[in-house]
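Hi V.,

You were right to ask for the full record rather than a summary. Here it is.
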Amino acid sequence: MDRRQFLLTTAAAQGRIQGANDRIRTGIIGAGGRGKYLTGQFKEIGAEMAAVCDIYEANLQGGLKEASTGAKPFHDYRKLLDDKSIDAVIVATPDHWHARMVIDAVEAGKDVYCEKPMANLLLSSSSKRSRSVEINSDNLVIEIQAETCFVRVDQKGNQLT
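Predicted structure:
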């Protein structure tokens, strides 16, 4: 499954395939090199990049240039997560921040795209979450992408085939 199929599958599972005027409003957390690349990829498949967050001003400004016109800037990712107009977030920060930011985003009711690694913290905490990173049928499924390799786990952290 490539990134485009992942996003479309996630949106379909959520019942969120929307018209051209009702795009998925997405925020990027971490607007460095990978964040800017993912911003472009998500824009290409129809996401509205409505918010950019980075603590480093140069990355924030670069991310705003790559994002949709009128994207809101944030220095604190928690403020971005508080924004009710944002439907989903992409976490493109240094690896050691992934688990905390993904957990916070899920708790804030956001859909999340994050590439590897996630760490054991998220997997051991996932059964406590009321919303999933990706919903696959009625079960909570977290997909961790490492280039073209996926690891799928259920609510108890067991690997799925």
